[in-house]
Write the structure tokens for this entry.
Amino acid sequence: MDLGIKDKMAIVCASSKGLGLSVVESLLDEGCNVVVSSSKEVNIKNVSDYLLTKNYSGDFFTFVSDLSKEEGVISLFKFALSKSSKIDILVNNCGGPEQGDIESITNDNLDEALDKNLKNIFILTKLVLPIMKSNNWGRIVNIGSSSAKQPIDNLILSNITRAGVIAFSKSISNQYASNNIMVNNVLPGRIITDRIKEIAEKKVKNYLLENEIDIDLNDILQMMGEDLPIKRLGTTNEFGPLVAFLCSEKASYITGNSIQVDGGLIKSLF
């Protein structure tokens, strides 16, 4: 299916690996030109080397930027404008905040989470919206977490900030729908990424403490998958194509939604 986004300019945040990279590859397959970002030089080098081995329809540009800081967000925006006079697609993505509950989370942890997972999404979106509005076309997709709809134990900062992004998205989707700017959220569940492995590693330690039985990471990952209706963890290859569709001409009547990619993890009707 031709999604009608050949030569569109896209920014995909935190996209050197995992979910972000799966989105980059799906957009490049459709002929988009994509800015790939990471806070680490080594990750940018690795992803650049990897993408150069592929044969995509679109071009990519790499940029090192710390999106937990406002100046990093602004520098990424300016870099994208140096490559194109327009920004058609923005995919907001960022790593999960510190794990913990209200007793263990510090005020500094809270400030960092609000900056990285909410405030700077607001700032980057605010920067690109005037460009999209002037072109009467835009797609914004925020990659969140299933925790936005179904809070996860020991992830209180993720629960708070991801839900905030949904409220933000719904607000601007209503405001800019008449400008042909579609704004949606995609909420991944248990997809195999570094974040899921990090959570699983903590479960390994807790399991040992609670049961006095040694268990390895792969056992925990298998248990996390078997706990789902689909009976397995997801892969990043099952994620990127949906985001690409939401960024496309084909998704011209879809806005203000939060779509789950979670293998049935979330139990609610809505």
